[in-house]
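Field reference: sequence -> structure
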Amino acid sequence: MNRGIVQPTGDTGALVLNGIKTFAKKHKIISTSYLFGIAVILFGGSGLNLSLKQRREYNRIMNTIDLDVEFDSSNNYHRANQAYRASKGWFTCDSLCQRNKRRMEESQKVLDSVRKEGYNRMSDAKSVAGLFSEVGVSEVRDSFWEYFASGKRFAKRQTMWDAMFIGMRSMSRDENMMEYLFKVLLQVLMNFSIGLCMALLFFIFGLWNIIKSYQPNPLSAVAFFVSAVCAGFAFVLTYLMIMYGAVIGGVYGMAKMAENNRLEGQRRRQFHNRPHSD
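Structure field:
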């Protein structure tokens, strides 16, 4: 048996499983959170359906929000802000500037008041629907996907720049294509890990504001927060594990193929160099 041949994948799989079991035993909180998050993703559903009475009341309150008033107030503020900035000097503010500043501050107060009123009415409508309703679950899910997509865009954009700079360094060091691709592959994994972990953190920071807008009781708020955080954590971790597994499997397959080709070449050379009898 040739010692250079890579051992069957069963040994590698057993080693990975043993590593997972050891990690799960040492980090029970992380493991439990991950399994709970997977359960939330698989069985959490899309939230409780609104009853006919809830839907009517929800729509009635939402229809009382005057978007035209907020749009007009926003335009007035931006016009007043532009006029103030146009009349403001580097270090001085004359009488015209002071008048524009007062108009800008007054328009800002009106805009803040209109937005606060709209937020309160929207919060009242959400409280009718409930945090665990289809409305609440859908809003949280949309928020997560938005942050998740932003994390992937960051990783792709950063990888593009890293690939360019790594290529420039590789040319200066006269590295071969395999070394360049391996470095780029490692950078892709690093960028996606950073981007998706940051996306998860931003999602968690913004989650509590969404929960508060539904005016839930403290127990329901904490339960929903923990469930959403665990689900987000489980999804991001699973996504990264699949990505790392695919990369490691690809590198392993390439290494095994290269090793087999090397051994095959050695056997052919030994066969051609072997003396043949006439």
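Note: The first helix runs from residue 9 to 26.
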